[in-house]
Amino acid sequence: MEGKIKLPRNVVQNIRKIVHQQADEVDYFSQDRNKNSTFFNNLVADPRVGGVLKDYMGQQRIRTYIKDSIMNRYSKDRTSALFSCNLDQILSTHLSEVVYLIERKTLKSSNVYLYRTESDSYIVVGEGTVIKWETALRRVLEFIENCNVHERKWEICLHLASTKDSLTHSDKEHIINSLKYIDVKVIFLERKPETIEK
């Protein structure tokens, strides 16, 4: 069993740039599993990617390295870019009142925010992707559990980004229906923020 692979920084940066550019060109997040498999096969066969990586690792590890190291970073970068919007403004619009940010925490690469509203209620907002909305909810609950003030009435909201070009109405309804039983609000963020609540 081989140990952890350490590539020169310039090699990693060059490969990352090529792979990220190709992922953008094929709209990686909107592709199905078969097309993504072909995408990875093409990267392994590309002399600028797989050809360079074979100098540092065995052929069988190249695909895994691209997927786990390069594309994982791509996914995180693209998701964080989606969340570059003004959450204060989105939340104020959603709640129809001004909100004040009290605290922001990053828990395992997910942001959780604590807001106080003008009407003196507290809302905890967890950011995440539509695919991993359960993780965003778990981070919010962990935040609340670790908070020093437990007698507060908490409202919970998930701010979810779709990495696909479009999120279907049925996808949204599934998440909304799953969360309405525990009184969790949802704000969907696609190309422009869209609020759905029932």
Written overview of the protein:
By secondary structure, this protein is α/β, with parallel strands linked by helices. The chain has 2 domains: 9-81; 87-196, no CATH class. Helix content is 47%, strand content 22%. It has a 6-stranded mixed sheet with strand order 1-2-3-4-5-6, sandwiched between helices. Helix 1 (9-25) packs across helix 4 and helix 2 (33-45) crosses helix 4 (59-82). The radius of gyration is 20 Å and the shape is elongated. The protein starts with 8 loop residues before the first helix and ends with a strand. The model is unreliable at 191-198 (pLDDT under 50).
Number of helices: 7
Task: Write down the overall mean pLDDT.
Answer: 83
Identify the overall geometry. elongated
Distance between the termini: 52 Å
Helix-and-strand structural type: alpha/beta
What value does the Rg take, in angstroms?
Answer: 20 Å
Number of domains: 2
Give the low-pLDDT segments. 191-198
Helix content: 40-55%
- Main β-sheet, spatial strand arrangement: 1-2-3-4-5-6
Q: H/E element string?
A: HHHHHEEEHEHEE
Largest sheet: 6 strands, mixed
Strand content: 15-25%
Give the number of DSSP strands.
6
